[in-house]
Write a structure and sequence with these properties.
The chain has 109 residues and is largely without helices or strands. Helices cover 11% and strands 6% of the residues. It is built from 2 helices and 2 strands; from the N terminus they run βαβα. The chain has a two-stranded antiparallel sheet. The protein is elongated and about 55 Å long.
Length: 109
Amino acid sequence: MGTRVFRPEEIYRAVKNVPPDLIVYFGDLAWRSVGTVGYGQPLYIFENDVGPDDANHAQQGILIMAVKGRRLERPVGRQEGMTLYDVAPTILAYLGLPVPEDMIGRPLI
């Protein structure tokens, strides 16, 4: 099935409040656990128990950025290796604000 398991402290720089005990990717995110896991239900099912959630459990994503009255000099296009951490530095750079040195991620423009 290709299941991968992570502990929050292995993938997050800082863990605040009450993190999940484990983060599990069933079938490399091709499967999902049911919301009732641990309550006598199976770990996974063949149908979705809450409806479509294709973007909620995907490793890849999409970022479309537009600011009214402002244009990029050129379209940025597809960005290989982009992470969620790159969004904030990108917005700061676009607005002409400094990107803190300790911020994770990099401006994409």
